[in-house]
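The passage that follows is intended for readers who have already worked through the single-chain material. We present the inputs for a multi-component assembly, then the predicted structure in tokenized form, and finally a short commentary. You are encouraged to pause after the input and sketch how you expect the pieces to fit together before reading on.
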Amino acid sequence: MPTRIAIFEDNDRLRETLTHLLQMNDYEVVGNYGRCDEAATIVRVYKPDVVLMDIDMPGESGITGVKLIKEARPHTAVIMYTVFEDDEKLFQCLCAGANGYLLKKTSPARLFDAIQEVLEGGAPMSPTIARKVLLSFQSGAAGAKKYDLSAREIEVLQWLTKGYSIKSIASEMNLAFDTVRSHLKNIYRKLHVNCGKEAIAKAISERIV
Amino acid sequence: MPTRIAIFEDNDRLRETLTHLLQMNDYEVVGNYGRCDEAATIVRVYKPDVVLMDIDMPGESGITGVKLIKEARPHTAVIMYTVFEDDEKLFQCLCAGANGYLLKKTSPARLFDAIQEVLEGGAPMSPTIARKVLLSFQSGAAGAKKYDLSAREIEVLQWLTKGYSIKSIASEMNLAFDTVRSHLKNIYRKLHVNCGKEAIAKAISERIV
DNA sequence: TGGGGAATCACTCTTTTGGGGGAGGTCTAT
DNA sequence: ATAGACCTCCCCCAAAAGAGTGATTCCCCA
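Having made your guess, compare it with the prediction:
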């Protein structure tokens, strides 16, 4: 049986074009919609295998759309299909559960590949997107250098981000309690924070450690 | 001029095969090595555009290899080429700065595509790898459900992970100081931690919030 | 050779946190 | 209606953390 596809895209012209394009290639388009407010109901009723989701639409955004679909029918594969390539929207989509992320400049051939890929459990992404995703993992030295942390300070910060108390850190590093505290004071100053909790939040979210 | 490629792979047979395969397709293999202890020097001297890097090798691992190469010559594109698809090794490679991650079952055609893709600033990944990467962004509800946190507790935890003090959280949420503390006590119990610092570390690294 | 940063440790003082209670209200499900 | 959750707030007390100040080494480098 053919792959069932639903399209959420507010540009009427593009939506129709996509629909025809897919139909000509033996896909079954089970619905095409200009907004995704009812996305949850739609996927429950029409049970698409794959959803192509735009981001910028009237009413609920495609980001919300992904959330709705993933809550309603988690195994539905959702491929974002958008012009946006800014980090903000990208990572919001990924966190919402998107299975792929294609830019609209993607060729039809690649679009078909992507649909196939996502059906096989992959995660199709446009090259620049994949790059952003991998870059988001880059860690360590960059952040530490940025804040000019010394080797010892980095070490203390690493223990801190594991949730260790000052006493425990001192014990682990074979240092006096006050020495660790001294390092921490310098760390807080360099990171522009006022307490260990902020330091942990900053260190982890900016991947300093 | 042809693309310059260096190969780090401890299996002699595979290494030779790869070398010939690449040479037959107009790539210039500037070196192939059975270990990556000297990777830093090698990339500095031979200036490859792309490096194919195995993980399991005698001496330094390929993960260390990526770090060395990225420190020595950051714009060198490194594609992991390995049989491993466990999360541990995968994310270590990505954090070390890998630009791509291919499983050894990848077809030669796809390998060439990947080299081209990484040269164009992309991030070639085998489908199952790409999937793991995207999955690592899935956040929120999953973790929160796992630890059975209530809506209010999640809200408090979110403020906490931003580094807010109890007093500030109370102020932000228009609650009494003791109410926030009460929520925190329950959060700590549910997360199996003993203090806010541990809670922040756990919440962020497990993407509970 | 003198300055400066890093690393080490010490003391005091105040504020913040965590752990232990308890208590009253709402809401839901049985 | 009764039990069990959340959510809300209160008290006490001890431990931990933060802020300020200062001192001693060691090593690098200008």
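Commentary: DSSP finds eleven helices and five strands in chain B. Chain B touches chain A through 43 residues (CB under 8 Å). How closely did your sketch match?
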